[in-house]
DNA sequence: CGACGGATGTATCGGTCTGATACATCGCAC
DNA sequence: GTGCGATGTATCAGACCGATACATCCGTCG
């Protein structure tokens, strides 16, 4: 997972470890806490040994900006093999792709996938969340007696979060299917009317209508 | 974390590993995926070696229910030291107590803490989520240009989730402060009117009014 | 009847990630 | 000029995951 994230970030710009972590934290802050240096630096070393990234000996026109002497920062750049590797990792969707952390990383680089791949991942994620949701519903209906008030409240909050995410995913999937770029300002569940030919049959209003 | 969760579950009933994992998944399904056997069984061994749990040689009145022969299930029970250990772990709130997984486990056993401890943990969690929320807000206002539409959507969804959780925590905190048990049926953000003396000043309607 | 799959049950292993820690430099404020 | 926070690289012990192995029990289907 970290590997994919690092390659993805270096795809945009060359960076050193410290900055990588900051960008990582910012980019994935929504879905996972943050990757720590304890995994970042070993990963960088591994990627370098594999030839996916290489030390970037600094642009001559930017002579080591603030840092000057000694063992300063180490800037990494993506190699051609690295780009290939990134594309492979991003496209091949293993089961962990739909887990919280994995999904966040994939989603962050969605613009590098085509529509079909995006749809596949979104639907896989939705399936995963729906399973979690069903589990919670079952717990809430079947074992109300066996759990104390706090546990129940926890289940309820989890269920609510699942339902929200499924709705979010449904909007994204509808967006993709209508060929439209991701939400312009879908803050309150409001989708702005876009000027577009009514191509297919539009899954209507029901946010839960899709198989099952 | 797993240690605390296992001790907490065995506090209620003696169980074997397989069932422990099922209960674990159910109880914490809302906040974390699940603990795997790869960490559960080593933890059980460690807890047993430490004397916090012990093999329960089966009730004589229930002579190994379905399983009969060979090396069947191993039922564990909590020892006196285990109960102490559980109380310690549950009460001492380290920084990881406010992380997703840690908070879920603590919350699940809230009924074994007193009101003051519950409030401390809820407020700590709220602080953590507020920090995450502020980070997301900053990203969304400051670096809109630098991120593509999908990354922005990810941030927005994360921000929404944070805001919801803060609101949830505020309700729980208000509940605790008014000495009332956790929500009876607070499904849609609706708090049923409860027959109770208007003890303190009731923080009114604003879900975000609390310091800051 | 036997064969097969799925739930139950215990257990280990390699690998990933975390949290703590160490250490060194830079720039700034007091 | 001295401390202090941000920048920067790096390692280590330990927690946890995913896969795998293996064995039993039970129901179903040919």
UniProtKB/TrEMBL annotation, chains A, B:
<feature type="region of interest" description="Disordered">
    <location>
        <begin position="175"/>
        <end position="212"/>
    </location>
</feature>
<feature type="compositionally biased region" description="Basic and acidic residues">
    <location>
        <begin position="202"/>
        <end position="212"/>
    </location>
</feature>
<dbReference type="InterPro" id="IPR036390">
    <property type="entry name" value="WH_DNA-bd_sf"/>
</dbReference>
<feature type="compositionally biased region" description="Polar residues">
    <location>
        <begin position="175"/>
        <end position="186"/>
    </location>
</feature>
<dbReference type="InterPro" id="IPR005149">
    <property type="entry name" value="Tscrpt_reg_PadR_N"/>
</dbReference>
<protein>
    <submittedName>
        <fullName>PadR family transcriptional regulator</fullName>
    </submittedName>
</protein>
<dbReference type="InterPro" id="IPR036388">
    <property type="entry name" value="WH-like_DNA-bd_sf"/>
</dbReference>
<dbReference type="Pfam" id="PF03551">
    <property type="entry name" value="PadR"/>
</dbReference>
<feature type="domain" description="Transcription regulator PadR N-terminal">
    <location>
        <begin position="6"/>
        <end position="87"/>
    </location>
</feature>
<dbReference type="InterPro" id="IPR052509">
    <property type="entry name" value="Metal_resp_DNA-bind_regulator"/>
</dbReference>
